[in-house]
Amino acid sequence: MPTRQVNIGVADIDLGEEELEEIASAAENAAQARLRQAGRRVRDTLVTVDIQRSADNTITLSVDVAASGYSLGPLSYEELVEEAVDEAIRAAERVIKQLVNARKNRMLQGVRSSGGAGQA
Questions:
Q1: How far apart are CA 112 and CA 94, in angstroms?
Q2: Are 92 and 8 in contact (CB under 8 A)?
Q3: Angle at which helices 77-117 and 17-36 pack, to 10 degrees?
Q4: How confident is the model at residue 118 (pLDDT cuts 50, 70, 90)?
Q5: pLDDT per residue over 13-62, tens digit each?
Q6: pTM for this entry
Q7: What is the torsional sign of CA 91, 33, 86, 55?
Q8: C-alpha span between 88 and 32 (Å, rounded)
């Protein structure tokens, strides 16, 4: 089963377990969606996403995808699997950006509201 691992740095933001699960789920759903695009020719699929966070806030995302079934014509299963892995990584990166931006916006709003509260 082809495995690809990527490291994604999220400096100054400590993502929680729920957020990590959201990232992994988005990656898995994106890979499954790409596999479904091949239609009924793909019979057996397996997508595994593992996500780890290190002390320096680096996220390591491991994506494993396997697919088999009937002939896909001009597209090979290896190409399909690679595309599914690419989609999974792009989806994870999108969710990470959204989470980081949302967290930064909340932090900025908190600074603005606490700074404005002391003014008369």
A1: 27
A2: yes
A3: 150
A4: very low
A5: 778 899 999 999 999 999 999 999 988 788 889 999 999 888 887 888 99
A6: 0.80
A7: positive
A8: 9
Cα 82 vs. chain centroid, distance in angstroms?
15
* Closest by CA position to 3, among listed 69, 89, 70: 89
DSSP-assigned letters across all residues of the chain: --EEEEEEE-TT----HHHHHHHHHHHHHHHHHHHHTTGGGEEEEEEEEEEEE-TTSEEEEEEEEEEEES--TTS-HHHHHHHHHHHHHHHHHHHHHHHHHHHHHHHHHHHHHHHHHT--
Strands 42-53 and 3-9: unpaired
Which sequence spans correspond to the domains of the chain?
3-117
Query: pLDDT digit string (tens) for 89-109?
Result: 999 999 998 998 888 888 777
Tell me the per-residue pLDDT of 66-93, one tens digit each, with 9 for 90 and over: 888 877 676 688 888 999 999 999 999 9
Order of strands, sheet of 58-69, starting from the edge strand that comes earlier in the sequence:
3-9, 58-69, 42-53
Fold observed for domain 3-117: GMP Synthetase; Chain A, domain 3 (3.30.300)
